[in-house]
Amino acid sequence: MSFSRSVFLLFALNLVDAIVTLIWIRNGWAAEGNYLMATALDFGEVPFLARKLGMGLFTAGVLLYGSQYRLAHIGARVALAAYSVAIASHILTGFAVSGHLS
To answer: Between 18 and which of 14, 27, 28, 52 could a Cys-Cys bridge form, CB atoms 3.0 to 4.6 Å apart?
Structure first.
């Protein structure tokens, strides 16, 4: 996979994470575990999304700007692994809330 596709996938996972987090919180199924994002959520969903997606865009920009450096490639891989775990957590939360996981 090309580096730019990896960065795009990273941002897409960031977007999915934000949307699913709002769904879980709105329905009372989970709470935001990240203090920085929970603080933004206290101001509403729009500030939460703005901060979440803004941080994702900034990260994508930094990674693309520094794409010639090995550290950017390592950082993108680590971030993709972390977001994969977050998405797996969302999936497991969905199963648990729906009663399919007990």
So the answer is: 52
CA nearest neighbour of 6 among 69, 68, 75: 75
pLDDT value at residue 91 = 87
Residue 43 belongs to domain spanning:
3-97
Domain count, the chain: 1
User: Within a domain: residue 102?
Assistant: no
**CA distances for 32 relative to 22, 36, 38, 43, 68, angstroms:** 9, 9, 5, 13, 35
Task: State the residue for tokens 């700007």.
Answer: 65
Residue 23 DSSP label:
H
